[in-house]
């Protein structure tokens, strides 16, 4: 992985340490949300944004600001953010930085590769891919449509309903047109939790 800005590096180190601490304590993950800055931004207010939806579960948001699809793949495959055993459910929310800053980076192909690696390496993990969060600066709907096709071809859950009602121009929801305020994060996580609950129940039924 290329050198990161200090904040992003600290976020990555914190995620890696969290995974290691869970493993050392014998806590097996029920759910991980992997992502970039919006996922990382859930941590300072996780007691309000995240934890109420996953009581009794081992569930963490693992994010790094500025993360591309390729960097997330490195974080999971080589960088210490892959728990042992794998999580029961993993949600992959990444691609904004590819689309806005590196549009020729083949982000869709790299997401396809990452999902394929996860399916091969974590065969009992249920995967989910959400639509990318709305942004004031770039229309991400075409890329999300490509994500939907990749997920469909691989038999992976895709969902877009959690973006309903999110408006990048609404300063109660968004900080800057890209990053969500705690209220926006809480709205999205509430929806995401409802989406993944059947996946968690399915893995419980399967043992």
Automatic annotation (TrEMBL):
Residues 34-184 form the SGNH hydrolase-type esterase domain. InterPro entries: SGNH_hydro (IPR013830), SGNH_hydro_sf (IPR036514). It comes from the Eukaryota. Pfam families: Lipase_GDSL_2. This is SGNH hydrolase-type esterase domain-containing protein.
């Amino acid at each position: 992985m290329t050198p990161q800005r200090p904040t992003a590096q600290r976020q990555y180190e914190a995620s890696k340490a969290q995974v290691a601490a869970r493993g050392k304590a014998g806590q097996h993950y029920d759910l991980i949300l992997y992502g970039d800055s919006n996922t990382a931004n859930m941590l300072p207010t996780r007691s309000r944004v995240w934890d109420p939806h996953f009581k009794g579960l081992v569930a963490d948001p693992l994010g790094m600001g500025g993360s591309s699809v390729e960097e997330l793949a490195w974080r999971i495959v080589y960088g210490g953010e892959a728990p042992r055993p794998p999580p029961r459910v993993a949600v992959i929310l990444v691609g904004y930085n590819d689309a806005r800053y590196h549009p020729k980076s083949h982000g869709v192909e790299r997401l396809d590769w990452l999902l394929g690696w996860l399916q091969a390496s974590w065969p009992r993990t249920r995967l989910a891919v959400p639509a990318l969060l709305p942004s004031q600066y770039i229309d991400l709907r075409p890329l999300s449509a490509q994500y939907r096709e990749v997920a469909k071809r691989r038999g992976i859950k895709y969902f877009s309903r959690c973006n309903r009602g999110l408006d990048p121009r609404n300063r109660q929801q968004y900080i800057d047109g890209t990053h969500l305020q705690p209220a926006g994060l809480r709205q999205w996580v509430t929806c995401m939790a409802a989406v993944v609950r059947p996946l968690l129940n399915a893995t419980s039924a399967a043992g």
